[in-house]
What does this fold into?
Amino acid sequence: MIKNFDKIKFQLSELAEVLNKFHSEAVQLKLIDILYSPQAFEPEAAPDKVATPAPPPVVKRRGPGRPPKVKKVDVPEIIIEAVEPKAKKEKTEAPKAKTRKKRESLKKTMDRPGPTPLVKQLIQDEYFNVKRTIGNIVSYCQETLKLDYRSTDLSGTLAKLTKDGLLVRNKNPETNQFEYIKA
It folds into this structure.
């Protein structure tokens, strides 16, 4: 029957003790597969290269922030139309080019002076003898001078002229806005 039955029985009991030390059944099965594979008992020829264990992959630790991008796998989409397929539209005319609507300004930008000459002219015309907010200045330019300025166009110039000492700027506590007056 089996030669050396007692010897094999003893070896199997030792093997069982070693395998039972591994709590994972998957690990136990993998070890048994390795032991009972036909390659396990074949003597190996002298290998050309000594197998060195590969170094563990370096995992860079990411800091807080956006998670890494996930690559999308191309999955073909299956679209089944239950209704009859749509007919292709025939192009009858070329699409018309979009035309931009011109902003109707009170005067062309080429005809108007820049914000610095405008504010200096207002200082000479004694416009700043009374306290004026930037909104008052913009509305005066639109209504009286027929010039289209925004408050952001004039704010830098007003700050510069305040720094140069031509204007004085005070904050109105009621409206919480700056008021400019001639220095």
